[in-house]
Predict the 3D structure of the following.
Amino acid sequence: MPDSSGMILNKEEENDAEVRREDQDQINEFGRLNARLHEVRGEVGGLKKLLEKIDDASTELMMGSGDNVMLRLGETFFEATEDEATEYCEGEVEKNQESLDKLKEEEADILEKQAGLKKSLYGRFGASINLEEK
């Protein structure tokens, strides 16, 4: 039987354990967690880019001359003072940082659950199952 790298397993490495319903449920749970992990990591990347853009905007505001600026909200631009725009940026940073922190917690929880599932599944199936990313 081929292993994760496409190689044939030795007879000693093969495991003829029957896949029980409980095992299949664990495999399915691992797959769902893995899919969510990829989603979370994508969202984290997007939030980090957004926070970087907001930081850049805040830096530009600090270097401003005190004039009014155009603040974009959705698809619309509004004229605002530098102080109002700075306050808005600070609020956005706080809101997005909270979201980022929650996603990081969720990522840690997913990894913890996956570690438990890996232990259980590798204990039952050994090298006959591959739960690692390529």
